[in-house]
Amino acid sequence: MSFQSPELSGKGGQIWSRFQARQHGYTNVLAKSLLQCQDLILRVNGLAMDW
Question: What are the distances in angstroms from CA 21 to CA 1, 10, 17, 47?
Answer without folding.
Answer: 20, 17, 6, 39
